[in-house]
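This section describes the prediction task in plain terms. A model, or a person checking by hand, is given the sequence of a single protein chain and must write out its three-dimensional structure as a string of tokens. No templates, partner chains or ligands are provided. The sample shown here is typical of the held-out split.
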Amino acid sequence: MAPPKLSRLELQVMEALWTHGGSSVREVQETFPEETRPAYTTVQTMMNRLEAKKAVRRAKKISNAHIFEATISRNAAQRHLIDDFLGLFGGRMQPVMAHLIEAGKLTLEDVQEAEKLLNALAEKEKRS
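The expected answer:
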């Protein structure tokens, strides 16, 4: 099953769960910087939406607080976002790579790491 599409705020909530593990709505809310912290009810709404999307689940209840856990991994969510983003370019990576290079956001180390991954993938395909 493909991970659901997540809004920016939903991703921020998920980031709190991925980083801190099972958390209550209040605990997730407190992970936001004070100056940009959303209201408790906003975070609660996001958690309920994420639950409806099956991105989180209620793991347990402590007193009146439900403890939520992520049901999708950070890696799966990131891969889904990248696939959606590349879809905007017809699946072509070249415009994205060109921009990253021109903006100085792609380092030699990044290129070397990508080369290692490509070589490992090629080796794996040879063995198959």
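For orientation: The chain has a mean pLDDT of 92.
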